[in-house]
Amino acid sequence: MKILGWLTVLMCGALLIFNVSEFPDMGDANSPANSKQNLSEYFLKKAYHDTKVPNVVTAVLADYRGYDTMYETAVIFSAGLACFFLLRIFRKKGPKSRFYRHTPTGVTLRIDEGGKLPEESDVFKRIDSIWIPHDNIVRITCRLVVPFIQIFALYVIAHGHYSPGGGFQGGVLLGASIILIAVSNNLRAGIQRMSEKGAALMGSAGVLIYAGTAALCLLLGSQFLNYNALAKLLHIKPVVARYNGILIVEIGVALAVMAVMVWIYYNLSSAGKHDEGL
Amino acid sequence: MDIVVIVMIVLGLFFYFAGSVGVIRFPDFYSRLHPAGMMDSMGLLLVMGGLAIHVATGVATGDPKIIESNDILSAVKIVLIVVFVYITSPTATHAIVDAGVRAGLGPWTKKKSEDSDGKRMD
User: Fold this and answer.
1) B73-87 pLDDT, tens per residue?
2) CB contact under 8 A, B87 and A144
């Protein structure tokens, strides 16, 4: 089985390296990216006219180069899947005893295997065996900062058309805000906010939004990823349809990136057990 | 006003420099966090304050076609940066110290300076 894996990796690598010879040379003046009459010039001059998006980077990323970004999102999602398949353990091995804190008195209780576990409430809080002391400063500061991070993330996603930003950056910020909750409390606090199932669903929903928008264009009688076709559905001008198509796609990217970030964090920090973590 | 701005930014850079020297020169983990946290806060306050004043009082462009503009909104954003860093930076320092204590790293003392690295406090 190991040899099979090695063979696959080597063959994929060889294929990639083999294809490098097809690329134009570094700094080649006649390559499509560099030559005067070709791509760069066209993007810089026509991007606003074609898509009504002032930020050329966003126009290139989500429209001219839409295929690439779609597969980037798919790659991120498969990274999450790979972490899940490699690390996730469903057997409840975990520590034999659990620790609880009686909040009013601050007493820590250790309940061994077979003992009666108290109801999870404000009075009895379960704590990780590797981190027993109170850490109110970190917890409350993170709680204070998280909403601002999320607002800023939404701004970055929605404002990607006009300023640096977009789906990937906004998604990372959203994911970081949930990871911050998990780091400052414990892993279970993060899972309460966003369950593993929710993360998996949102990740796949993000990729589906992107690919679905593209396929919708195909169904409406245009090319795959040609947002012009959405004009018929939304009753707007084709150029505005491109503008909105980019926004929809960016939202899909943000969803996928956020969910996968959180999902990978859950699996890595608890070694796949989702019980106790950082 | 330009002189005030320049003095503030240069002073801020001095604090940053002192912070970096401190991080290298201090003997152990905990004392190194001290300059890293304190000097950064002061340096940030001075540099960002200087920038905020610079932006708020108007940018002399030198180009007669572009008139001087005073951008209050950007100044407020710069002040917000300071506010957020002042909330998060001490917390980060606190969390790092906590992690050090949790891992069992003892503080440095002059007596046993030879085995200060990674000596557990038991």
Assistant:
1) 888 889 999 999 999
2) yes
